[in-house]
Amino acid sequence: MNHFGAVKACVFDAYGTLFDLGDLTRAAVPTLGRQRADALNALWRRKQLDYSWLRSLIGRHTDFWHVTGESLDHAMLALDVADPLLRARLMEAWLTPPPFADVVEGLGAVRAAGLRTAILSNGSVAMLTGAVGAAGIQRLLDAVISVEPAGVFKPHPAVYALAVDRLDLPPGEIAFVTANGWDAAGAAAFGFKVAWLNRQGAAPEMLPAGPKAEFRSLAELAPLLRP
Predict the structure, then answer these.
(1) Pick the catalytic residue: 13, 63, 102, 183?
(2) By CB count within 10 A, which of 83, 141, 153, 212 is most buried?
């Protein structure tokens, strides 16, 4: 495993990295059945990312809560699901997504190694505040950074620059951890030292920049960050 050398802070993506999005449509199972609920979840998440990238490209930013609602509306329409109460319950689930089992121990080990910690996420301030609070990890984070001040979504360089400004560190002294291959490419292109948390054993992205290291659990992270 490649060691990162002298980094002073570790910045984490939120969704899919610290917070588990695998079963946000659990509330839909009694109505739709497991197969249709899973299909709804997959299409919802795909459109959420598509819309964030497309809004960035066409210069029509809105916060991630709005994007999440638009993408859910598309997914429900595509699967012929018309249920306003179910929609409300599904949106509410995005305010309290469960953390992965390795999050508390992993963050604690990074802080014990003497590094500052932060989240940098597409999520709106309200979404991130809800998720961090519900997970009980406030004490393990020095900063929670939403893309909103940049007015654009990842992987735009302006988003990664928010962490540089907030932590007052150059990109080369910041480790960036994400479970999303496209986010790893964007962060590496910006200049962060990137660790790809490849929880599912996915194939690497074929993009111009990539992670310095790949691992499967946050329990493996702290040794990677030691000089």
Answers:
(1) 13
(2) 153
